[in-house]
Amino acid sequence: MDKKKIISVEHLVKHYGDFVAVKDLSFDVYEGEIFGLLGPNGAGKSTTLEIIETLREKTSGKVMVAGYDLDAQPNEIKKIIGVQLQSSGFYPGLNLLELIDLFSGLYNRKVDPWQLLDTVNLRDKAKAKVKELSGGQKQRFSIATTLINQPRIVFLDEPTTGLDPQARRNLWDLVKGIRAQGTTVIITTHYMDEAEYLCDRVAIVDSGTIIALATPDQLIDELVATGFERPREMKKANLEDVFIHLTGHSLREAEIKKS
Fold first, then answer.
1. H-only helix segments in the chain
2. What is the pTM of this model?
3. Among residues 128, 84, 72, which one has the least CA distance to residue 258?
């Protein structure tokens, strides 16, 4: 059975004055996959995502999301996507339960806030405010808010930047769990180990254009086929694996103690 395209981007271009941020970029995303956009800062990743999310206007090109045309039906696209907010985007005076109720009202959706908090392992923080959460907890709650409208597609822009190894691994499990429910996930990241672990396919973007697109395994095999060798033999585990093994894989993120 052929995979079903849920996002199709054709010849996307974005200009900022004389600067071309996205140059004739084309790719497809299939339903139910985790798709990664990788590239250095300024490569055009975030701009591309914001255009697909209807948050930024494109200069030219065609974007289709779940059969909806970005130019003609942006409001229909907004109804079926979830976009991760930064923690600064939340009302500081509300606790997590109140924030979920607020967003549920905005989306006109009935959501069990406790069940949603269970999904991201934050039931014990239900009465806390976002500013009282650790970095990993903030990111998990931010992802939880993307699920309120039961989206078909979730966009995560560098979701683990600045997190400690345990929090990163916990977030990886959360992203895998979201995909297991049938949701398509689009992710940008600077961490290659993260992309290799999470993504079914990745597009490597440089200077506003895609220079490679395949599964992580295919890209690695292609590099090895050129005769590439690491300068030294890699061990079967790395220091991050040691850290996780010694400290445990449980949700034990350190809380900032108030003086």
1. 45-52, 74-80, 96-107, 113-119, 135-146, 165-180, 192-198, 216-225, 239-247
2. 0.86
3. 128
